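sry for the spam today, last one i promise. struct tokens for design, 74 residues
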């Protein structure tokens, strides 16, 4: 009975492997979701001309000719 519990391949090792598997499955799910989000962003950038403009305005403070940019302090 002790050999089944404590030696290589015993129940204790099996519990460790199951916990590790569960952690890896969660990480895999998180990475798949992140990948899906990136694919969606790429698709928007390829198909929606306003998406590039939105990013340019928000992240790089770009404006169209005649627009006025006002930066407010927090």
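last one done:
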């Amino acid at each position: 009975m002790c050999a089944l519990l404590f030696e290589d391949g015993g129940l204790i090792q099996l519990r460790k492997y199951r916990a590790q598997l569960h952690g890896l499955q969660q990480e895999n799910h998180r990475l798949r979701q992140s990948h899906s989000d990136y694919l969606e962003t790429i698709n928007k950038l390829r198909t929606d001309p306003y998406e590039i403009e939105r990013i340019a305005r928000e992240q790089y403070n770009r404006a169209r000719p005649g627009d006025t940019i006002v930066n407010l302090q927090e």
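The longest helix spans residues 11-47. ok im logging off now
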